[in-house]
Amino acid sequence: MKALVVDVDGTITLGDRSLDCRAVRALRSLSVPVVIATGNVLCSARTISKLVGTGGIVIAENGGVVECNKVEHNTAYMKECEDAFNFLNEHSGFDLEKLDPENRRTEICLRRNFDVEKAMQLLREHPGVEIVDTGFAVHIKSKMINKGTGLKRIAELMGLDAQDFVAIGDSHNDVEMLEVSGFGVAVGNAHHELKGIADMVTKGEHGAGVAEAIKYIKEKMMLR
């Protein structure tokens, strides 16, 4: 493996979204590139990368935005997301609150304060979009964009293949990223769906799981 990509919320952070320093120490011990992958907006992804001490290569908005020396926004499906949001706003009776609307370019993020299952049922009339509940926020996004497509693009920009990456995550929105990577890790607190497709499930949760995974793959000479 030539690089590592890691999710943020629930993976290198604790349940209260505070940064888990166990993950930071482990990530900083690597000599290969580390990519931050998140559902957060680009400015947040950049900040997280600086705090963690990685090289500034990021996947943001669940794959819709990537940055590796240059920024790319995949805005092709944003109108579908806006139409789905407007439909949901009109027909659900929910008090929907957008998060970071001024900075978000490729999807819509909502505060997690409504019945997500009901919203999913209502949006069956919009087959091009999906709702992803990360446990921290709810995303209305195109089915054509995910962290897997983001990883493929960032790998291309880095002169690598997605199979060259170890991927670490915890949630629904990490599934495609683990699937396209060469070695997928689900931390101990991960959703059962992610654990089901991972090559490795750690005993440790959050940052402890990240540190456990990095120790394992270094011992197996998979990463340096």
TrEMBL record:
It comes from the Archaea. Substrate binds at K147. The active site is at D7. Pfam families: Hydrolase_3. Mg(2+) binds at D7, D9, D170, D174. Its EC number is 3.1.3.18. Belongs to the archaeal SPP-like hydrolase family. This is Phosphoglycolate phosphatase.
